[in-house]
Design goal:
Blueprint lengths: L1 H28 L35 H20 L5 H9 L4 H11 L4 E3 L6 E3 L2 E6 L6 H17 L10 E5 L2 H10 L10 H4 L6 E3 L4 E5 L6 E4 L5 E4 L7 H20 L15 E8 L11 H19 L1 H11 L3 E3 L3 E4 L4 E8 L8 E5 L9 E3 H7 L3 H5 L1 E6 H10 L7 E7 L7 E4 L6 E2 L1 E3 L7 E4 L7 H19 L7 H6 L8 E3 L11 H32 L8 H22 L4 H19 L12 H38 L1
Parallel strand pairs: 3-4, 3-6, 6-8, 7-21, 9-12, 9-16, 15-17, 16-20
Antiparallel strand pairs: 1-2, 5-11, 7-8, 10-11, 13-14, 13-15, 17-18, 19-20
Length: about 650
């Protein structure tokens, strides 16, 4: 009987222990639901198991015992001084602030310090560029000695630059090997018959770019000199010089080609610097002043449907190619494979057509270009309708709206969309043809840019009969030019932009398929990446440093689920990859793209609701809450178990006697 009572008490105690253990296990494994009103008591720290990088701070000492003693002694003295009022509290925080930078960040900064970085625009240091490496080919020459000599001379000319005040950051040239030189020389018969190798023009997946060094081809014994820039990352130099006159070839490369190469490859140093702005979304609003006026039967619905479809088609043909290229830089969602980089993030492009938003009559003025001497040159449209009835006289007048009036009208009806907003305004037939006139200069135009406001600009649509797509595409070219200017490029076609880089004797030709469009070439995209690389790098380093500092200081109480740790691992891996791309001499666009991917990922980790710290409860709070609940249940069971153990031992001893 005594053994049975002891067993019953033991079972009760074991059940209580199992209940507490099960509750603890449940609290530690149950995922935290942000929408739930219940606060968790145990944080999910499973992410620490898969976290790759070390979040511990850089030590303030040299690792010796004396260093540890000095560090902790300084902290204790600072805290005691602050408590006694002998020193300022900032002295204590000073020690913690010094330990903010993590070991991982220190490693990254040490790698960056070894890179050959050069500052462009020394006054404000707005652009910092690493050194580019290019594969150098001379398909017409078999002699490797000549190729190496020419490459060395061209590389030196680029490094010396074309200005003594601002030396160049340089381009490293890697000459091709003997086998490829001999094979190329055997296949090439003349300069005019030569064409780019297939691997330089092959098209990968639409959202994939191959990680490779750009190619620089030097063709000799040509009938004319030129620098050709194709769609790919290659640059082709054609010269009339031959390998028989190597000295003349070297002088030509130094005087003519080196400055042109610098302008093509490092456009960030030659173009006017603009404030860095990440393009994330574009919204185009089409306003049709009076749809009924553009159809002879007054069928406004048919006209508006055709206009809406034409707007989508025009955006896809005019703006989408630019957005696709820029998404590689700004997208922020990239994946790295063996020798390719794949991006899934895209700049959002949307549109919204609207109708029946008429311009006020008092805003439209008429310019009487052929008015007789002494007559008024410009009148209000409402006054013109009352005073002028001569159709021949009306034909020589021009309707216009001042830029001030148009900006006020558009801004009062603009949407609240974030990002870049652009308005296309289609005037009614009664107000067509309509132009915009600058209030100060008196110049006429079809588009204006509204500085520092929403929308960013307005373009007038001049409807050409029923050619909806052509009319809208022409107006969208102003938006395309603005996007180019927004990214530091010239508001010109690609062919015109490269033509301005020509010298007096050597023309620069863009031979891509989109030469006549306002698209973005490879080297222009590279110049955009050059403007963003260093600033985004510093932002990524700062954000990762902040997250690692948070994990180190609050690691024992901070929840770190696995999916948050994976985001941190992705960000740190992309940061490492971006620095390795720069070390290898790859174009900066690959490093900038991965940096924006790291920035997007680390920002997502910072904003993740599952990365949180548990509410703080003091020990006396726990005792006050749980003691009245647990002690009445636990104490009797424990005392009963102790009493039964003593009684069982006493009975067992009596039986032995």
């Amino acid at each position: 009987m005594a053994g049975t009572r002891l067993a019953v008490h033991s079972v009760f105690v074991v059940q209580l222990i199992c209940l507490v253990a099960a509750s603890f296990l449940y609290a530690s494994t149950k995922p935290f639901d942000p929408s739930s009103s219940a606060e968790p008591f145990i944080s999910d720290q499973s992410g620490w198991k898969i976290l790759v990088e070390d979040v511990s701070p850089v030590p303030l000492h040299d690792g010796s015992i004396g260093g540890y003693i000095r560090e902790y002694f300084d902290v204790v003295v600072a805290e005691v001084s602050a408590l006694l009022g002998l020193g300022e509290e900032e002295q204590v925080h000073h020690h913690h602030a010094e330990r903010r930078t993590s070991v991982f960040l220190q490693q990254m900064r040490q790698q960056l310090s070894k890179l050959p970085l050069k500052y462009i625009n020394h006054d404000d240091k707005s652009v910092v560029l690493p050194q580019l490496k290019m594969n150098f080919h001379m398909p017409m020459i078999e002699d490797v000695t000549v190729i190496n000599r020419v490459a060395s001379e061209l590389e030196g000319a680029i490094i010396r630059g074309n200005s003594a005040k601002q030396p160049s950051h340089g381009i490293t040239l890697a000459p091709s090997d003997d086998a490829s030189n001999q094979k190329a020389a055997e296949e090439v018969k003349s300069c005019e018959e030569w064409s780019l190798p297939e691997e330089s023009t092959e098209l990968l997946h639409r959202n994939t770019r191959k990680l490779k060094l750009p190619d620089l081809y030097l063709l000799t014994d040509c009938t004319k000199t030129s620098v050709d820039v194709p769609d790919s990352d290659a640059i082709v130099i054609r010269t009339t010089h031959t390998d028989n006159d190597v000295n003349g070839l070297e002088q030509y490369l130094q005087a003519e080609i080196a400055p042109i190469l610098l302008k093509i490859v490092y456009q960030a140093s030659t173009q006017k610097q603009m404030q860095m702005q990440r393009l994330e979304r574009i919204f185009v609003q089409l306003i049709d002043e009076d749809p009924t006026s553009h159809r002879e039967g007054g069928d406004a619905k048919v006209h508006f449907d055709l206009l809406s479809r034409a707007l989508s088609t025009s955006l896809q043909s005019t703006i989408s190619p630019m957005i696709h290229d820029l998404s590689f830089i700004y997208g922020g969602n990239v994946e790295l494979f063996d020798d390719t980089i794949f991006w899934k993030g895209a700049i959002d492009l949307s549109s919204a057509p609207s109708a029946y938003l008429p311009l006020p009559n008092n805003a439209i003025e008429i310019d009487r270009g052929d008015a007789a001497d002494g007559e008024q040159g410009a009148v209000k449209a409402e006054d013109e309708a009352e005073s002028v009835e001569n159709e021949e006289y009306k034909s020589v007048s021009t309707k216009f709206v001042t830029t001030v009036q148009m900006s006020k009208f558009i801004q009062s009806h603009s949407s609240s969309n974030e990002g870049l907003e652009w308005v296309l305004f289609l005037p009614s037939r009664d107000h067509s043809p309509l132009t915009l006139r600058d209030s100060k200069s008196g110049d006429n135009g079809q588009s204006i840019v509204l500085s520092g406001s929403k929308p960013a600009g307005v373009s007038l649509v001049q409807m050409d009969d029923d050619k909806y797509i052509n009319s809208l595409s022409h107006s969208l070219n102003y938006l395309a030019g603005y996007i180019r200017e927004l990214n530091g490029l010239q508001s010109k076609t690609v062919m015109e932009a490269y033509d301005e880089l020509s010298s007096t004797t050597t023309p620069v030709n863009y031979i891509g398929r989109s030469a006549q469009s306002l698209s973005i070439s490879f080297w222009e995209l590279e110049s955009i990446a050059q403007r963003h690389w260093y600033a985004v790098l510093q932002q990524v380093l700062h954000d990762i440093d902040a997250v690692m500092s948070l994990l180190h200081e609050h690691g024992s109480t901070l929840a770190l689920p696995e999916h948050v740790a994976k985001k941190i691992n992705t960000a740190t891996n992309l940061l490492r990859k971006s620095i390795s791309f720069v070390e290898e001499g790859l174009p900066v666009m690959y490093a900038t793209s991965t940096l924006y991917g790291a920035l997007t990922t680390i920002e997502s980790a910072q904003a993740d609701a599952d990365l949180f710290e548990l509410p703080y409860f003091a020990p006396d709070h726990y005792l006050a809450v749980f003691s009245p609940l647990v002690l009445p249940l636990v104490m009797p069971m424990i005392f009963g178990l102790i009493r039964e153990v003593k009684r069982y031992k006493e009975l067992k001893r009596k039986r032995q006697i």
